[in-house]
Structure to design on (291 residues):
């Protein structure tokens, strides 16, 4: 009995300092966590309040770092950059926030990828992570910089591998901070993030309990060519400013846009069985502008 009591007292003395740690102490300790091929660049407790344009955020631990740092094509430094926000009041849920464009920038990990800016996942107790998908794009529009594609590994990381690596690292960070694993994990993305969501479903289905793929960007090369054609065509009909430059935003007048919108509704609104100014049966909609 004395031996058992001594052991309990011993373990109690060891555990007491851990439980006595403040949230700030536990967060700061993440900067000293050793994970193979991972560099934690910062870890600090962040007070509750709005973050950029992403809406409210509760008190949370903000962790930033880089995974698999290396020298790649042309002597350029590559790494899978990430940001993870761990709310102090955790619901044991995790959200991987998809990127956009060609990635190249680590967006605030708020869990607002599909537009839930008023009540993002972080505000609802999710731990949230975001990533640049393996490369840093050049300003002022890093999401439009495709120069990373000269590096084969960067293309692979951008296509799918960064999803696996960031999820693996996030699990370890969450375990270190909370002392327990998450119960549910989700992926949410739109546009290129929607494409990433489909990649997550196809390649890493066991890592997520639910996946939201919004407006997934398929065949991006073809879409880019189509977008360039659209822009050039619209510029040809756009009015010009005092310097003779076309004003793209005025290529179509409000009356033009209203006419087209009304035509779409007239041809396709009732195809879902209800005339309510909502086109829900999009597959059956074959809008003909000539009509």
């Amino acid at each position: 009995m004395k031996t058992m009591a001594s052991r309990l007292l011993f373990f109690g003395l060891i555990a007491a300092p851990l439980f006595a740690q403040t949230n700030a102490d536990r967060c700061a300790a993440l900067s000293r966590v050793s994970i193979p091929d991972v560099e934690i660049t910062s870890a600090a407790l962040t007070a509750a309040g709005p973050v950029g344009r992403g809406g409210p955020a509760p008190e949370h631990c903000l962790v930033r770092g880089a995974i698999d740092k290396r020298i790649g094509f042309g002597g350029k430094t590559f790494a899978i950059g990430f940001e993870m926000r761990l709310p102090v009041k955790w619901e044991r849920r995790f959200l991987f926030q998809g990127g956009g464009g060609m990635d190249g920038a680590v967006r605030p990990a708020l869990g607002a990828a599909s537009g839930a800016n008023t009540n993002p996942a972080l505000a609802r107790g999710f731990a949230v992570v975001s990533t640049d998908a393996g490369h840093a794009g050049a300003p002022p529009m890093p999401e439009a910089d495709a120069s990373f594609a000269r590096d084969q590994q960067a293309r692979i990381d951008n296509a799918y591998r960064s999803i696996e690596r960031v999820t693996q690292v996030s699990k370890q960070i969450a375990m270190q901070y909370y002392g327990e694993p998450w119960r549910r994990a989700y992926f949410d993305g739109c546009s290129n993030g929607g494409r990433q969501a489909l990649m997550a479903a196809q390649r890493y289905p066991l890592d997520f309990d639910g996946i939201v793929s919004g407006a997934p960007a398929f065949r991006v090369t073809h879409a880019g060519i189509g977008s360039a054609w659209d822009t050039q065509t619209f510029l040809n009909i756009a009015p010009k400013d005092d310097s003779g430059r076309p004003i793209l935003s005025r290529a179509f007048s409000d009356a033009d846009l209203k006419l087209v919108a009304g035509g779409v509704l007239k041809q396709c609104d009732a195809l879902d069985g209800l005339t309510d100014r909502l086109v829900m049966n999009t597959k059956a909609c074959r809008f003909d502008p000539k009509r």
